[in-house]
Amino acid sequence: MTSLRIYAPATSANLSVGFDSLGVAISPVDGSLLGDVVQIESSSVPFELENVGAFARKLPKDLHKNIVYQAYVLFSERLKLRGGEIKHLRLTLEKNMPIGSGLGSSACSIVAALVALNQFHDNPFTEMELLAMMGELEGRISGSIHYDNVAPCYLGGLQMMTESQGNICQTLPFFDDWYWVLAYPGIKVSTSEARSILPKNYSRQDMIAQARHLGSFVHACHTQQAQLAVSMMKDFIAEPYRENLLPNFSAVRQGCKDLGAMAVGISGSGPTMFAIAPDLALAQKISAFLEKEYLQNSDGFIHICKVDNQGVRKIN
Length: 316
Hints:
Layout: E1 3-13, E2 22-28, E3 35-42, E4 47-52, H1 67-81, E5 89-94, H2 105-120, H3 127-142, H4 150-155, E6 158-164, E7 167-172, E8 179-184, H5 191-196, H6 204-223, H7 226-231, H8 239-242, H9 249-259, E9 263-266, E10 273-277, H10 280-293, E11 301-307, E12 313-315
Parallel strand pairs: 4-5
Antiparallel strand pairs: 1-2, 1-3, 1-12, 2-6, 2-11, 3-5, 6-7, 8-10, 8-11, 9-10
């Protein structure tokens, strides 16, 4: 193998009800790629890295702070422990995802890089071994290891983090007919900042409510009760504290609901927000509303998406 290109899709974590425990992979219905691409090819020197793409200018100038470089270093270390040898290679990161967007931007880069490296070296690591490395790298950025972006980005669909019996996550049945309207306003909210504003302690009442809603949501997924699922998509843990980081979020959320959105929430730690619609016509109305009321600058964008059940994949 001399060259390949790996695409890793965007994700929406938490889904309001599943703080740090749920994440879903998403792709635009128009066929465009909302995610990062890593190209890997043979090189005459030990290592090269080039950054290209719409948001490459936002990446750190220091190579050692680039998460794709860190993925290369971690993969190399683990491969040497297996008795393997890292090949001379060149990586090109197509950074199509805004940093600090709430769409799993760092996860896209991490997943695409590690899968490219693994395939380039004839797959020395298993799925769960790679996923563990992905979580470790994600933790370097957010301050704590969590898998709610890397797992769905890697595996596709809706993933629930279990971290039990040798499995990091489990795939949940979901609602493939839902339309997800994702609006990124064009501003940055760092994951570490969004985590730091959360309280250290919660009331018993809030914890019981969150547990009840999450349990009911998972039950609704398995029994395919769409209305029950959306009625349970409420957040008692993060959104009440994070919504002040987002521009006019409370009013915009109400506006989406007034139009008929089934559920509205913060994607990951924000500032992207999601609204779920039962059909394309309503999704387009919500999209037009969000474009007018939520986007802040020319970096902002809106995509109408559906669940991406493929996850990371090789592209031409």
